[in-house]
Amino acid sequence: MTVPDAPRAPRVAMLSVHTSPLDQPGTGDAGGMNVYVLDLARALAQRGAEVEIFTRATSSAQPLVVDVQPGIRVLHVPAGPFEGLDKNDLPGQLCAFTAGVLRAEAHRPAGWYDVVHTHYWLSGQAGWLAAERWDVPLVHTMHTMARVKNAALAPGDAPEPPGRIIGEEQVVQAADVLVASTRAEAEDLVREYGADPDKVHVVPPGIDLETFTPLAGADDAPEVAAGARRALRERLGLPVDAPVVLFAGRVQLLKGPDVLVQALAHLDPAVRLVVLGGASGRPTAVRELEALAHQCGVRDRLLVHPPVTRARLADWYRAADVVAVPSHNESFGLVAAEAQACGTPVVAAAVGGLRTVVIDDVSGVLVEGHRPTAWAEALGGLLADDARRARLAAGARAAGGRFSWDATAAAVLDVYTQARKARNAPARERAGA
What we know:
This protein is an alpha/beta fold. The protein has helices at 32-46, 94-106, 121-134, 146-150, 162-174, 183-193, 222-236, 257-264, 285-295, 310-319, 334-341, 354-357, 372-383, 386-400, 405-432; strands spanning 11-15, 50-56, 65-69, 72-77, 115-119, 138-141, 177-180, 200-202, 244-248, 272-276, 302-305, 322-325, 346-349, 364-367. Helix 2 (94-106) packs parallel to helix 3.
């Protein structure tokens, strides 16, 4: 009896037009999506998939192809000027980008790619054409949605343009399958964009659980953990005994670091706020935040530090007493998940995916709204209660462990299989008609 060959792991064309997965997260347009794309690709490759990530070239010095590891390569596609092109101007370069993707595929044997997986609506527009040309399924992950973002704008923030909304609507209708990070995001896709519920699959992102780990002794030896935290703070240049609140992410109105600066004015003078990230959207964003701290009388209690590697980021999470995530919208909330995996309680806005990632009064605290006084009350109450903070730290360690990239990759591979079936179904139905 002949045993059929096991199905081949897919070859995936993954598109991330506006930001490269190789960029340092925490500044410019690089953030959680960069981490998502690269870590998902790594987990897929570990399961045998071959992943080629197409992104727009932003420097003449970038190599056209970067082999990240076996099974993963990043291709930098020239499309428009290398530098000085704002994200809002990128729709005008989608034709050039798509042409570059199609040219790269033309050098492959026919039928090389099995699926196109796009991230963010710009990539969806390019991937839509590629998937049609290659007759393979289009899987799309939104990451953020204009209608959802516009409904929860930070004061002074600019709304997303109508052109983006139209583009998102088109991608939602064109995709064979949509991947949502949380149930709330899936509901937004159906309610705000008319997505077919049967096309929407909820797949939570993962965390690098080998990098984001608690302090040694956190579970069994509190005194050992306390000593490790002191040594860690000394190494990072943080005050050893002062309460430390950490914000990690891009400095932009959407992420809400200004809320924390204003809240700091209502907290005990000993409290320090660390902002770990760079300017995004406006090049003056960091200076504006520092000016706000000066106006609030807390400039000497604010430490702004540029983004760091993930290994160093884990140290900053562990060194903090609390990690704060005051975003006005988050489709998932990767920073909150990573901080919890490091055993640090999270105070987060009760919005979007943060309501799923942070378990209120178990792994952290959810805050309704963005009033600085409400945030000061939540942060101050937690910082002043060592027993509660220790209880939430234990809950955070358990909550962070819920997310792994291996589980995410397994679910995404299943999504790819279902997407191929969904795309082939109409052809079979026509053949049988």
